[in-house]
């Protein structure tokens, strides 16, 4: 076949006359261009490492220091106070060098040492400046003189045009809170959820822990904090994610959606062409470190970018005791799944990235391929959807050698995974709300065998042109993947675009080799194990009750008029909705980031507080508006304080988690830690922030609205709620629970949340809201032909 000949650089035949050597110049050219691309990447990586290594200075500043020192010496003064002479005495150079040359060499060495000392000092100063978090606790809109001076100093020491990883060496380490402070905050958060007897017993356990075992565990934790970049992140990744033996699907992986009201093209292959090309553009910017470092708005405080390193070319490998994350430096192809078959699709040709039109052509080749899957191939990915131990055993037994290993390696070493679905999804048809829910479920778990749940992320492309993603959670948190997806969606529509017929723009090179079909030899015993994993995954998927609720009645704009934090507003609304739904309060998890610190990930905000419960009881008990408003503001301020504490290293749960891990290493039992770590989070919540607002234009293109993403329920009898605040007038909610629990219903809880939001807005607004116009606009948009 033609592609087979193109893959061989030379052929030789042994004859009686000798060896007949035939070179394929085209293949050799491909090898040369591919190698050239690899070397360019290495040079770029080396250059960026140098620039990042000397940050906040620049490489050119070394030359400035050298010239300044030499110029000073030319004036017959000694800026080194005798150090240059000392260096000259011990300089291991030949006597053939003149005294002047040795002096110059000594001056250059001194200048280099001085330059490195200045870099170290500047980095240390910046690290100390970034350790200050008082700005976060100031009243919104009022900046103190201290903070203004601090912000000016940060700008001075931050240098110019930092690369993505420039701040990594200057970020402070996550501090270890005092045991007594963490225990005190825990008891405060637990009081409202316990009876008097339960609270008294827990207080006794806490005091015993604090006065005895806690101090010993804390000593080891402080020792780790002095040695490691982050005392939480590695243990969190290993024990919370990689050692989990249950299915990743639903329990750990999460999803991201396409535009809510718009589908840029109805052609599946064309949408794939732009989407995959946009992913490659993002990866190129990532490799060159051209992505701007993420920052906290307003004061532009930098955030840790360590999680970005494993976005692409990363796979989770199953193990019997614990999984492992493997990351490769580069990968020039993606693995594609379609109708039970697996393909390798090269994304580079002749040393260049394929254009969107060329990727569309290659994807269409896969869609048109009539070949059937071999036995066991169609549902192979169900192994990644089921329990981890059976998958680890099957991988070791059936995929450790031969053709199966080669094909599995191809999937695991791919840049990412692509799933081409035959279904149509989106907010469409006669039942747009129901179809939106089914769209979410499809992205979360699909058919349980058409997503490779171990890959860092899977891009899903539907028959009608809709897309989405499913992401594995252990390598990074949702905001990292959301940043990628925002770029991909906006680049797809606003930068790359489509022709009038809906195809990608550009031409197709005639020499493109077609995608390669992966081959398998799956025995009957392995097929049985695949079916067992599929049964486990299917039971889990069928139990998921999902509801996506776009709210256009109001958004951040109306909430800010009430002078309340939008996040605090929504969190208190969730408490009100849960109380109305279940008649009680529950332990609530809200994810907060700790990326102000090096290698920081998340911390828990226990958003069910005594202040929020007091407000909810007062509102439901018929107290006056003035009383309720006062209690609401008190609850909102308390929530904001807890969120800020979590962001600045003063959280509760990560500290207790690490103390528990240390106790296990030491073989010690702590009744207090055991009870804390076994608590059930029946309400798990997370906000997906819109990070690159400048990429969207909600004024001129209001229909190009991202819908955010969601995750499965954490507890069997609880809810998972993800929300994203879009512009000034929209909030999207993703609500999950389980059908098997008679007490939970995602649609009912969604209605309760919406009513709670409206009630709180009416309570806090000076003028009564009239949502009818926004509701009519929502219905109008829902009927658009997508």
Automatic annotation (TrEMBL):
It is a multi-pass membrane protein. Residues 1-47 form the Carnitine O-palmitoyltransferase N-terminal domain. The chain crosses the membrane at residues 50-74. GO terms for biological process: carnitine metabolic process; fatty acid beta-oxidation. Pfam families: Carn_acyltransf, CPT_N. The active site is at 473 (proton acceptor). Residues 174-754 form the Choline/carnitine acyltransferase domain. Residues 766-786 are annotated as: Disordered. It is found in: Mitochondrion outer membrane. GO terms for cellular component: mitochondrial outer membrane. Its EC number is 2.3.1.21. This is carnitine O-palmitoyltransferase. The lineage of its organism: Eukaryota, Metazoa, Chordata, Craniata, Vertebrata.
């Amino acid at each position: 076949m033609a592609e087979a000949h193109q893959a061989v650089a030379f052929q030789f035949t042994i004859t009686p006359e000798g060896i007949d050597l035939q070179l394929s110049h085209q293949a050799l050219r491909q090898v040369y261009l591919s190698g050239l691309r690899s070397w360019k990447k290495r040079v770029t990586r080396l250059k960026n490492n140098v620039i990042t290594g000397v940050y906040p200075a620049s490489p050119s500043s070394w030359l400035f220091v050298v010239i300044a020192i030499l110029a000073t010496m030319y004036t017959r003064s000694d800026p080194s106070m005798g150090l240059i002479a000392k260096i000259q005495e011990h300089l291991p150079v030949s006597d053939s060098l003149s005294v002047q040359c040795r002096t110059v060499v000594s001056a250059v060495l001194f200048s280099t040492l001085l330059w490195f000392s200045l870099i170290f000092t500047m980095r240390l100063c910046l690290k100390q400046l970034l350790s200050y978090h008082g700005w976060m606790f100031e009243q919104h809109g009022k900046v103190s003189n201290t903070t203004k001076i601090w912000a000016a100093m940060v700008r001075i020491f931050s240098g110019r045009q930092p690369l993505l990883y420039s701040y990594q060496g200057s970020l402070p380490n996550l501090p270890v809170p005092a045991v007594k402070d963490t225990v005190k905050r825990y008891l405060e958060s637990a009081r409202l959820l316990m009876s008097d007897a339960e609270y008294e017993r827990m207080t006794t356990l806490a005091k015993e822990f604090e006065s005895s075992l806690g101090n010993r565990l804390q000593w080891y934790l402080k020792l780790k904090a002095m040695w490691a970049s982050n005392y939480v992140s590695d243990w969190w990744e290993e024990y919370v994610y990689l050692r989990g033996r249950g299915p990743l699907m639903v329990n750990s992986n999460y999803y991201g959606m396409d535009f809510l009201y718009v589908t840029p093209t109805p052609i599946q292959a064309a949408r794939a062409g732009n989407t995959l090309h946009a992913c490659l553009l993002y990866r190129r910017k990532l490799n060159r470190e051209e992505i701007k470092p993420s920052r906290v708005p307003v004061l532009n405080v930098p955030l840790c970018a360590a999680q970005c390193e494993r976005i692409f070319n990363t796979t989770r490998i199953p193990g019997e005791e614990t999984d492992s994350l493997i990351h490769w430096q580069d990968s020039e192809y993606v693995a594609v799944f379609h109708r039970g078959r697996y393909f390798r699709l090269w994304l580079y040709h002749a040393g260049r990235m394929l254009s969107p039109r060329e990727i569309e052509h290659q994807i269409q080749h896969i869609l048109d391929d009539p070949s059937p899957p071999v036995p066991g191939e169609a549902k192979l990915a169900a192994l990644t959807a089921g329990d981890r131990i059976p998958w680890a055993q099957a991988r070791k037994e059936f995929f450790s050698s031969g053709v199966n290993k080669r094909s599995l390696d191809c999937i695991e070493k791919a840049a990412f995974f692509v799933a081409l679905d035959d279904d149509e999804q989106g907010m469409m048809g006669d039942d747009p709300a129901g179809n939106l829910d089914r769209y979410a479920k499809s992205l979360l778990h699909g058919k349980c065998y058409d997503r490779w749940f171990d890959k860092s992320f899977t891009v899903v492309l539907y028959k009608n042109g809709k897309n989405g993603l499913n992401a594995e959670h252990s390598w990074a948190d949702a905001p990292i993947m959301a940043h990628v997806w925002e770029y991909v969606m906006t680049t797809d529509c606003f930068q790359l675009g489509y022709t009038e017929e809906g195809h990608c723009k550009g031409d197709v090179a005639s020499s493109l080799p077609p995608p390669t079909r992966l081959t398998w030899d799956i025995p009957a015993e392995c097929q049985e194990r695949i079916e067992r994993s599929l049964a486990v995954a299917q039971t889990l998927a069928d139990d998921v009750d999902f509801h996506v609720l776009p709210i256009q009645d109001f958004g951040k704009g109306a909430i800010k008029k009430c002078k309340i934090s939008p996040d605090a507003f929504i969190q208190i609304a969730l408490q009100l909705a849960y109380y109305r739904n279940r008649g009680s309060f529950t332990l609530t998890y809200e994810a907060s980031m700790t990326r102000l610190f090096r290698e920081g990930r998340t911390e828990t905000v226990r958003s069910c507080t005594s202040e929020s419960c007091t407000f909810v009881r007062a509102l439901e008990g018929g107290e006056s508006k003035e009383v309720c408003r006062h209690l609401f503001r008190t609850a909102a301020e308390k929530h904001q304080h807890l969120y800020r504490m979590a962001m600045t290293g003063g959280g509760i749960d990560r500290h207790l988690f690490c103390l528990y891990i240390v106790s296990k290493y030491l073989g010690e039992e702590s009744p207090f830690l055991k009870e804390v770590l076994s608590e059930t989070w029946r309400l798990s919540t997370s906000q997906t922030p819109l990070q690159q607002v400048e990429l969207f234009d909600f004024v001129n293109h209001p229909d190009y609205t991202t819908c955010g993403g969601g995750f499965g329920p954490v507890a069997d009898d609880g809810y998972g709620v993800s929300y994203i605040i879009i512009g000034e007038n929209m909030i999207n909610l993703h609500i999950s629970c389980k059908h098997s629990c008679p007490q939970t219903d995602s649609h009912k809880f969604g209605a309760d949340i919406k009513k709670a939001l409206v009630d709180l807005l009416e309570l806090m607004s000076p003028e009564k809201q009239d949502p009818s116009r926004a509701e009519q606009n929502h219905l109008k948009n829902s009927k658009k032909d997508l």
